[in-house]
Specification:
single chain; 246 residues; alpha+beta; Alpha-D-Glucose-1,6-Bisphosphate, Chain A, domain 4; ten-stranded mixed beta sheet; two-stranded antiparallel ribbon; 12 strands
Amino acid sequence: MNRKLVFQDKDFQRAFELEAGREDDGWTKTGTWTESSEFWKMVDYDAAVPLHLKCRIRVNDVPLEKCRKLLTNVELRNKWDGAKFEVNQLERNPYYSTIYWIFHLPFFVQNRDMVQHTAVRWIPEKKAYVILYKDGTHPSKPETNDYIRMKTGLSYTILRRADNDPNTTIMSTLGNNEYGGWLPYALMGKLYASSLTKLSQRLTKACSDYSEESTSLQKPIQKQTPSLGVAASRQYHRSLSVKDQR
């Protein structure tokens, strides 16, 4: 596998295209909408992973840089995030990280696990951080009978500073996952909306609970990345610290 080609410029561009999609593009509304959140679902049976779930939600009182760090620092996330999962970084190279998730589900549902490759990039013309995820493998985490192995299509988290509040972040996400087992798409749409609402609340709490000192929230080196997909943008991605990869 050519590590340079796991995440390409077209993947980051595709994230913004998917984010912009609405009814005319096959998306339908799902979940409970509020003034600060919206949720969408699309099922594309021609795609390798048919179910696409996305949201746009306001994360109050969490500045952009801190939101990025809380989400992408694996060690830190295991400390603050009360959701029923475990996440560990298996490997990191200059182009992406490989992470392993275990999801602890209710007693009547078998637990899931997942291996993902993930990369973070600052896109200056969009004034946004883009965190991408793709399905991955790792020799230390073969499939076992203990878990149902989830599969991931191209998924993203896009983070922007709120226009009217520099201390608030707008978080846009897409989960393109095959959950396996009997879980119906309608149920997963509702659970996704609920989980993202709770995640935004946990982020706000974590921002107040963890000080700059205790989390070592160091600002990444701000290299100039003049346009989406140029070599300088790749160099910026490589400058992020090991713990800045989710």
